[in-house]
Every structure is written in structure tokens, then in C-alpha cells.
Specification:
Blueprint lengths: L21 E8 L2 E6 L2 E6 L2 E6 L10 H16 L5 E6 L3 E3 L4 H7 L3 H18 L4 E5 L2 E3 L1 H7 L3 E5 L3 E3 L13 H9 L1 H10 L2 E3 H6 L5 E3 L4 H13 L3 H14 L4 H16 L2 H11 L10
Parallel strand pairs: 4-5, 5-7, 6-8, 7-9, 8-10, 9-12
Antiparallel strand pairs: 1-2, 2-3, 3-4, 10-11
Helix pairs in contact: 1-3, 5-6, 9-10
Bound molecules: ligand T3D.
Ligand T3D binds next to helix 2, helix 3 and strand 8.
Amino acid sequence: MVFVQSKLNHQFLSEGDYCHSVASFTLANSKFLQMTFENLGFKIEDGVALITLNRPDKLNSFDNSMGANFQTALDHCLDNTEIRCVLLTGSGRGFCAGQDLEEAISGISDIEEHVENKYNPIVRKIRAIEKPVIAAVNGVAAGAGANLAYCCDIVVAAESAKFIQSFVNIGLIPDTGGTYFLPRLVGLHKAAVMMMLGEKMTAEEGKDLGLVYKVFPDGELMDGAMALAKRMAQMPTRGIGLTKKALNYSLRNTMNEQLAVERDLQGEAGRTSDNAEGINAFLEKRKPVFKGE
Ligand code: T3D
């Protein structure tokens, strides 16, 4: 196991804490970094962190190890200023089938503790990353896997992808933020139908509901998603991060509270060099070069 302690500030990467199965971690140059876990791919290229859930035989369902490694990768996205956009996908034919049910039946004694330490932090981290997080749903997204996609900022999907609130099929309630985000995204009754019936929803149906931004032909998803991520990584990502922060607040604020949030965050955005660059580029009739600062 190799850790690189560098300007990238990996103080959270301590063995036994999070990294149960780090196979290698390489820093070739400041633009390209790769951490390889047994069950999770993580690489940074052109400002995009690509995270790939990688337990294809189990449709990338979460066991403890993959969940812990995923949290490590998200921490890295939070801290590393070279990352300006995060792209999340799954390997093989699934995106993520939620909790690994073999582990659930044999190894989880305290479900509250498990949800609090394995699933809740994932949602909190994704919402705390002040950068766009895109879910590229390549196949079935079930249970916590579906709600993982919904807590991201943008969801794109392959034509054959399916979304299922499958918790009901095993007598559970939706977690991973599902009962928070889904009613806000699609309305109370539609969320209730999805959660109480646990039916499969196609990518196109998700698009009609506004849950999915774009549907790609199956073979074109990752090229399309990566192009979107790289485009966003060149945008004023500090401002986009502050927009995300404002949206987080808006989910619970009154109008007056939210106007105050807009005032304060606009102050921050207005002091970024990207704001000056955007205005100057407009006035000079040239393409802006944004740095995410
Ligand atoms: O404990 C807590 O912390 C509570 C938290 C809960 C969070 C949750 O996510 S609860 C919901 C858990 N997930 C599910 O209930 C989904 C279970 N899976 C399915 O319903 C189906 O697999 C799918 C609808 C997702 C896909 O169906 P299909 O027909 O395309 O594939 P399949 O044949 O069912 O699955 C392929 C393989 O993946 C298969 O293994 P095998 O037979 O080839 O060796 C299957 O067992 C495995 N697999 C799929 N999902 C899971 C799984 N193995 C373990 N855990 C899974 N969740």
C-alpha cells in the first residue's frame, strides 16, 4: 500500500480508518492522479474525478469495504482543488444495486449504526462537495443505488438503465436521502408511488419526471457523460459550487432566509477571479478562461 502525502492534503487517508483495500495510488503529475481500490476506480483527468463503483458481479452493491473506499474518494473530491467536477458511474451492467444483501443478512447487527456511518455520510459528502457531481447511470440503480444518483447534482443515464426504489421489496424504508430528495424532486404522491410500489422506472420515464437530465444510447453514455463533466470542469466552478450551496439551503429555507443566502453567496461569487474574467471576456468579446477561483 502506498500513500502519497503531498500538496493534495490526504490527511484523511489513514489505514484502518477508511482505506480497507487500497491497491495503489499514483501521482504522475499535477493533472493526472489515480487511486486504485479493489472495488472502486478513482482517477482525475482534466479536472474531472471519475469514480467507478466496481463490484460488477454484485451489480456494484455496497458492501462495507466499497462504501468506505467511496467515502475516501468523496473526501478527496472535497479537498483537492484540482478536481472541478465529479463523475460517478458503475462498472459492468449495473450502476449500483444498493446494500449488498448477503452482507446485510450475515453481517449487520446494528442497522441504525450502519445507516448512520455507511450511507448518511455519503449523502452529506456529495451535498457538501462544492463542485458539480454528475451521476452517469449505466444500468440498474436500485435501493440506495437509486437514491445515490438522486442526491447528485445532475443525472445522465443510458437508454437501458432502470431506477427502482426496491427497499419495499425487502420490507425496508427508502434511505440514502431518498425520503428527503424524491418528494422535493417529483412531488409527494409520485414519490409515494415509487417508494410504496417499488416498480422499475426507465431512463426515459426518469427524464420525463425531471430526475434525469439526458438519456444516451447505451454505448454512448460514458463519452457523453465525460464530455459534459469536462465541459463543466472548465466553467466557473467556484460559482457553480456556491450555486450548489444555495440550492442546499433552499431545500429548507423560507423565502426571506433564502434571499439572505443569495446576498451572502453572491458576495462571495462576486469576489472570485472567474467573475472578473467572465465580465472582462464579455466586454473584450473573447472566450473566457475560468480557473474555478
Ligand atoms: O442494512 C442497511 O444498512 C439498510 C440499508 C439498505 C440500503 C438498500 O439499498 S436496501 C435495498 C437493497 N437492494 C435491493 O434490494 C436490490 C436487490 N437486487 C435486485 O432486486 C435485482 O438484482 C435488480 C433488480 C437490481 C437487478 O435484477 P437483475 O435480474 O438484472 O439481476 P440479478 O440476476 O438479480 O443480479 C445479478 C447478480 O447480482 C446476482 O448474483 P448471481 O446470482 O449472478 O451470483 C445477484 O444476486 C447480485 N445482486 C444484485 N443485487 C444485489 C446482489 N447481490 C447482493 N446484494 C444486492 N443488493
